[in-house]
Write a structure and sequence with these properties.
The chain is an alpha/beta fold. The chain has 18 helices and 13 strands. The strands form 2 sheets. The protein has a 7-stranded mixed sheet with strand order 3-4-2-1-5-6-7, with helices on both faces. The relative contact order is 0.12.
Length: 414
């Protein structure tokens, strides 16, 4: 089967959607499918929106059995379209939504023609609200592509961009298949008119990072953590991921457990510098107890997770949370927000804790409960590890996706 995947960015860019696309692309290639990825030249998430970082080279390369073609990003219309969308949308909603979608980018000149010429049996685009979601439709409408279209939305159901726009929903209504991660997302889409027969819940997977030899003691020593209790944040460093919410909660934790340390490990975004400047106004003791590991190498993730006592990701923009699975592989309890998708991943009180978004006292209480009780950490972390190994491998996810692809490819042929 000829498969074409269109993510907004791809390896070596670090991000949840990027890691997901790479994992399923490589596993489908291992199974004998002809897998190609069309993506942008973005070298990190921030460079999807501005030319602040040097781009990756355009053109083709083969990465672990997958042909990856990168297209240069055209930034010229992005800011203009966003500004105009804000003015137009109150008076002409649909044109305003179209401008907002256009302004989301990335704009990849030449990709629509390339999609049509590729003649894939299945074209998959991800994630929602990224402009790449509409390229398969352009190839079908204006270039005569006959490929089946699958969309992996990676829904953040609390994102106002989705709630206020009919375009992503319309794209999913017309797709041959929509592949959400959780049953919560599935019900969300059904309620908004996406036909239930097109929706296939596929879940998310995880690499077996725990098979890598780790040295948590050396990691702690090299970063001055020693024997202190360690709380780790792992994800993009931006407001929706709950970084500042976690820092506010740690102020409460430090009142009762002053030896605790916070490690913020993740990818820089457009908001990172502003958040660090905001953190510089915190009391000196808070600044000294916080370690920032920005754009740290992926190779250090096993040591980081092995060295953690608790992993807290109080994000309100989460379609699944692969970091939860990665943490469980190392037997670490997790703390997340009580929002739709995450509530379907974490079993409150069984493998971690769920807290109310924005309630820093509840978040602080959950973290303290775990930090002061090694037996509780062990019990919750062990249950999470068993659940992950049994149900959340990439091979299992790839099998579910392969079945859907074969079904919709047959449907388009007939």
């Amino acid at each position: 089967m000829r498969v074409l995947h269109i993510p907004q960015a791809y390896w070596p860019v670090v991000g949840g959607a990027e890691a997901y696309c790479q994992a399923i692309s490589e596993r489908l290639a291992e199974r004998g499918h002809e897998v190609t990825v069309f993506t942008s030249c973005a070298s990190n998430v921030a460079s999807l929106y501005s030319a602040a970082s040097p781009p990756l080279a355009a053109g083709d390369e083969r990465v672990n059995g997958v042909v990856v073609r990168r297209f240069p990003i055209d930034y010229r219309w992005t800011s203009w379209a966003r500004a105009l969308a804000g003015r137009v949308q109150p008076f002409w909603p649909l044109p305003g939504q179209a401008l907002a979608a256009f302004g989301a980018g990335p704009h990849l000149p030449g990709i629509v023609k390339a999609i049509a010429r590729h003649r894939a049996e299945v074209v998959m685009a991800m994630p929602f609200l990224s402009f790449v979601m509409y390229y398969p439709w352009a190839a079908r409408r204006w270039r005569g592509s006959r490929s089946a279209i699958a969309l992996i939305p990676c829904l953040h159901t609390l994102d106002t961009g989705l709630a206020n726009s009919a375009l992503p929903i319309a794209a999913m209504q017309a797709a041959d298949a929509v592949l959400p991660f959780t049953t919560y997302e599935k019900q969300y889409l059904i309620a908004r008119g996406v036909p239930e027969g097109k929706i296939h819940t596929i879940g998310a997977g995880v690499h077996r990072l725990d098979s890598v030899k780790t040295d948590p003691r050396a990691f702690r020593k090299s970063h001055g953590l020693v024997e202190d209790p360690v709380v780790v944040f792992l994800g993009r460093v931006e407001e929706p991921k709950g970084v500042w919410f976690l820092m506010e909660a740690m102020l409460e934790v430090w009142k009762l457990l002053p030896t605790a340390r916070l490690v913020i490990a993740g990818t820089r975004t457009r908001q990172t510098d502003a958040m660090r400047a905001r953190a510089s106004a915190l009391p000196r003791t808070a600044r000294e107890r916080t370690l920032w590991l920005l754009d740290f190498p992926e190779s250090q993730k096993p040591d980081l997770l092995a060295a953690a006592d608790v992993v807290a990701l109080p994000s309100v923009h989460e379609s699944f949370g692969i970091a939860f699975l990665e943490s469980w592989l190392f037997g670490k309890p997790v703390v997340g927000c009580r929002i739709g998708a995450v509530s379907g991943v974490i079993e409150d009180g069984e493998d971690g804790f769920l807290v109310t978004p924005g309630d820093r006292e509840e978040l602080a209480h959950a973290i303290l409960r775990l930090l002061v009780s090694p037996s509780l950490r062990l019990r919750l972390g062990d249950r999470g590890r068993r659940k992950t190994i049994e149900h959340c491998t990439w091979d299992a996810v790839a099998s579910r996706i392969e079945t859907v692809y074969e079904k919709i490819a047959r449907g388009r042929r007939h």
